[in-house]
């Protein structure tokens, strides 16, 4: 089930089977001058079916929305074998309940997605790319908040902390500033001179927040290196030991507090937690790193995760911004949402899959 | 329940009670340089609660999305009196099922929305406004398709047909071209010179599709008149008799076919059906007009509506793009969605409101 069934430039849609890899889909529509935005860092390996199951995000979701925002139509097989056709190519449609939105992000627990019609956009112009380096995590967090408050809508707004910068630079030799406590990767894909104006405004916000220096990618290739550096963050951290990536999210104004909480948790438990992520969305990937021969790793991993989840929830945040509840975060669904809300989710699960045969044990 | 509870510029959110009028909300956030996009034509009368219930659209949804796209958090009271807090201020959150999305657009049949946290945007620059006049409806439809295919993303892309133009012009004396079969209202709110470039591209697409002429609003006041002309379309048609506005939607490439179908249905049944609407979304408002003393009005109204709904469904469209199923369109929900899909909707209704006490008889 890896086929592209139709590319429809007149309606800016593509219809696919769920096994197709995100990057294959992107490449196929790019030949028509079109663009499928959602881009998880794993886009060269992950399938659209997985993206739909988790409502996956990615780097450019800060501007273009997450997977659910890109879905116009679905074919879903329910627990009793019924085939549902939901939506289609209508941009607006309020006939009945939002079943399509409900199935997206349900991790296969409500039905199995067998086909999807996705929204495309015209391919935007090549991005202008900027890096800003900061003397403290706080300053980087403040820069993100300032950009949000100033209403900047960059195509990319990513953060890497000192340990992540070092791990990426050791591996990829990008010549990043190892003295900085954090960097922000900011990109604009606005047309013409508007891109330059957007990056100038972002640069001003970074400097006002205390950036030590900023630099622009000299050309498309250098921009690609920098972007690739961010995409490789998790794999770079895996070279340091057993790396366990988390996925907390907070309201954007709370990013500085969440970054401070991560530092405090790291210090308290003696576990390095390099952090990177989609700062423009408030979605951070603190990544626990344990040495491969640490016998206490599993135990401390559980303690640190517990502390991270509770810190995010305490800031009005979420235990998972784009990866999903699955099994690992299942005990925290009720902590975050409250028992009443989870009870409603369970009623929906029972209504659609009374025998519990769809991805059993996951999510609710 | 008409209060604004919080405006949060740092997170670009506003939290409101559902009774607040859309226009009041817009005005309050505008004082902070912020913008709440969804703008039903009735925005000066309609409440946010109603907007949430129907997942309302509007003129600028073509660029900024519909009401559901603007919702970050909800408080909902369920049929058994439980108070649910859903979402909050997180931009990304995949913890559990998309309950929030499900409640939006459910017309109060699954729960009662008592509070909402909505996404704002920084106020965009003043719009540049263009009108294009066409010698045929087909040509206007082709221009819309061409703009979609060229990937133009105007802030407004609205259509009015000859009869609507005449009704608006008779009432408002705007000096519109009464010879034209249709006009498109196209607006850009891109920053700086990008707006000019966008309107030029739109103008080129209109001319290529056969526009007889195009004109720009000379200033903000003239733009406002033209926009107001479109907003008053329904009220202008009400001056002609009993006006019954419909709300079909089709994939954008099928707009010319839908416009031809509306003309054919009008001729077949001898009922004038002036048509206007959100052409950029494929969402059209064919409006049946009957004289006030026509004893056959009710009967012919039912026949014409049946024909319109079936034509839209036959083109892969919907019987309602933004107004909702309610009672009037309820018999067509199953025609459009199919019995299997409606059965799933009913299972969800039964799971959340087993006694059927919430807005009884509506939707499913």
The largest beta-sheet of chain A arranges its strands as 11-8-10-9-13-14-12
Question: Of all protein chain pairs, which has the greatest interface, and how many residues does each chain bring to it?
Answer: A-B, 94 and 94 residues
Number of domains of chain A: 3
Query: Ranges of chain A with pLDDT <50 over ≥5 residues?
Result: none
The overall strand count of chain A is: 14
Distance from first to last alpha carbon of chain A: 28 Å
Look at the helices and sheets of chain A and give the structural class: alpha+beta
What CATH first level of the largest domain in chain A would be assigned?
Alpha Beta
Q: What is the subunit organization of this protein?
A: homodimer
Task: Report the helical percentage of chain A.
Answer: 25-40%
Report the total helices of chain A: 13
